[in-house]
Write a structure and sequence with these properties.
Length: about 575
């Protein structure tokens, strides 16, 4: 019999991140992690987004990750949409990128970038760190049974018959979803995508792009039957995968091996990069159907990562969603263990955050697939997605809305999703749809707060092991948290209505004061996007005073973050 404060099912990034956060901020709690395999072991899902870098630093394992010398992910190169041109999406302007000696210290540049990781090594580093900081790690230790009583988990039974009891339980078991299934939690499939993925690992491929300091981009290449990923994982090892609709695989009559090799043979760039490489020779396969659970938390349990839901991997959000949810589950348990905040509020906030994030990523993935010529049957489906949000739009307008709508749940107080800010989503929409995305802040010059009819609630801000309630306006399915960028814009709007004479100077003052963390011009750039989102979501009303100047914002086809990859396009012509 093992008696613990927290029992975590699964030692992958979700379980180890949750355990590591608990060990750091609440060392008085006894935490056990039960992993059915023995690490290291291979796992798919190697490409990260920038929010994970901050989580690794907070956990205290940044130095260990840097010592592993994983490639720095600068961004991604795509061939997607109706054009055969290759184009780049980068996490920061490349003219601002500076080489940093590896292993890198934690810097503002490191915070803006991500990693491409060999999951066997990455997951082991995380699990070892959890153990070193105080978690009890058991492997191999398969959970055979989750015992329940009503909405409460009462214990776990391991394969060897050992019984485990705890005050709180975490389901970080991934697709196995042991606790979720034991509690009979239903899932929703808010998408028509039913894709299947096949992949293998290669040695000694060429990288399509190299930056000083070990930086590169992943490749995402659309072909006639689906798309290919190419993710360098280290100096010699690369993950190459193929994603296609399940029905295409079934109707092809091909084996996993044959359909995988057939797909790679269709792509000249992949053939060139693998010309002198060898592969492991074991093609793995998995379904990657997007879904979200009807609940993500209960009386004494939390669903973390894929146990709570999954979004199609086109945006590489899997690890970000997993480790973010693990962090917030740990914070919630710490608060409950210390009697801080209302328990029901903590559980409801966790549940709302995770399920909303997953749904937004699913919605945005649908937008990406709708833009691709190989998935045109999804175009009409965008109207249904818009209708779920309370909008009556035809397929073309709904399609554009999907790429320009506001996303406020990824990082509290910021505007963006999947590493893209609002300007980035609009630039993507222009590439997919054509035309110019119009900015409200360019049409008007007088702006006024509008919270009429809104409810006031509190949402949690998670920082330094503590949860702080944040005043938030809610109207329909829109929310306005008075935190981060939203708080700054809210304050500027309360100081005056004139954009050039009052609002912009207030933004400039804030940018100057926060310049040590980010270039002032970039701060203003993000604040203007926040004003735009607040206007689109109805939190701001606006009008035009013809006697006052306006600000002209535009979304360029070729920008610093998203632009055509001229080098590779020229290379492919040769």
């Amino acid at each position: 019999m093992k008696n613990l404060d927290v029992a975590i099912i699964g030692g992958g990034p979700g379980g180890s991140t949750c355990g590591g956060m608990l060990a750091k901020y609440a060392p008085e709690l006894s935490v056990g992690i039960f992993e059915r395999e023995t690490f290291p072991r291979d796992h798919v899902g190697e490409s990260q987004l920038p929010p994970i870098s901050s989580i690794l630093n907070e956990l205290g394992c940044w130095d260990a990750m840097e010592a592993a010398n994983f490639p720095i992910k600068i961004g991604a190169t795509y061939r997607w949409g109706n054009s055969n041109k290759l184009w780049d999406f980068e996490f920061m302007p490349m003219d601002a990128y500076r080489e940093e000696q590896r292993p890198r210290p934690w810097t503002s540049q490191a915070k803006q970038l991500a990693l491409q990781v060999d999951r066997a090594r990455y997951d082991k580093i995380l699990l070892d760190h959890a153990q070193e900081t105080g978690c009890k790690v058991f492997q191999p230790a398969q959970v055979r049974k989750v015992e329940t009583e009503g909405d409460k988990v009462t214990g776990l039974v391991l394969a060897d018959g050992t019984e485990v009891t705890a005050r709180w339980y975490i389901d970080a078991s991934g697709a196995s979803a042991l606790l979720r299934r034991a509690m009979s939690i239903e899932i929703d499939l808010p998408t028509k995508l039913q894709n299947i993925a096949f992949w293998d690992y290669w040695e000694n491929t060429e990288w399509a792009t190299r930056f000083p300091g070990g930086g590169t981009r992943v490749l995402v290449l659309s072909i006639g039957t689906g798309w290919i990923w190419f993710i360098p994982l280290g100096p010699t090892r690369t993950s190459i995968g193929f994603v296609c609709p399940r029905d295409h695989f079934k109707s092809s009559g091909l084996s996993k091996e044959d359909i995988y090799l057939q797909a790679l043979a269709q792509e000249p760039l992949i053939a060139e990069l693998t010309e002198n490489a060898t592969r492991d020779g074991e093609v793995r396969g998995t379904k990657d159907w997007s879904f979200v659970t009807e609940r993500a938390a209960g009386e004494n349990w939390f669903l973390v990562g894929e146990a709570a839901g999954f979004a199609d991997p086109i945006l590489a959000a899997g690890l970000t969603l997993t480790q973010t949810s693990a962090r917030e589950a740990a914070y919630s348990i710490i608060a409950m263990s210390r009697g801080k905040h209302d328990r029901d509020w903590l559980l409801k906030s966790y549940d709302d955050n995770q399920r909303t994030r997953i749904r937004q990523h699913i919605r945005f993935a649908d937008f990406w697939y709708s833009a691709n010529g190989n998935f045109t049957d999804l175009q009409a489906y965008t109207s249904e997605i818009a209708q779920d949000a309370g909008l009556e739009l035809d397929p073309q307008r709904a399609f554009q809305w999907l790429g320009t709508g506001g996303f406020t749940h990824d990082v509290l107080g910021q505007v963006g999703i999947g590493g893209l800010d609002l300007a980035g989503t609009r630039q993507i929409a222009q590439r997919f749809v054509g035309g110019q995305a119009e900015w409200q802040v360019s049409r008007y010059n007088r702006f006024r707060l509008n919270t009429k009819g809104a409810r006031v609630i509190e949402v949690p801000a998670y920082s330094d092991g503590e949860i702080r309630p944040i005043k938030t306006f809610v109207r329909g399915n829109k929310r306005l948290p008075l935190y981060g960028l939203f708080s700054v814009v809210h304050k500027a709007l309360k100081g005056g209505r004139d954009l050039v004479g009052q609002i912009l100077p207030a933004m400039q003052q804030h940018a100057a004061e926060s310049g040590q963390h980010m270039a002032p011009q970039l701060v203003i750039h993000h604040l203007m996007q926040t004003l735009e989102l607040m206007t689109n979501d109805g939190w701001v009303t606006c009008d035009l005073d013809p006697t006052r100047p306006k600000i002209n914002l535009a979304t360029p086809d070729e920008g610093h973050i998203i632009h055509t990859n001229r080098e590779l396009n020229e290379r492919m012509k040769q």
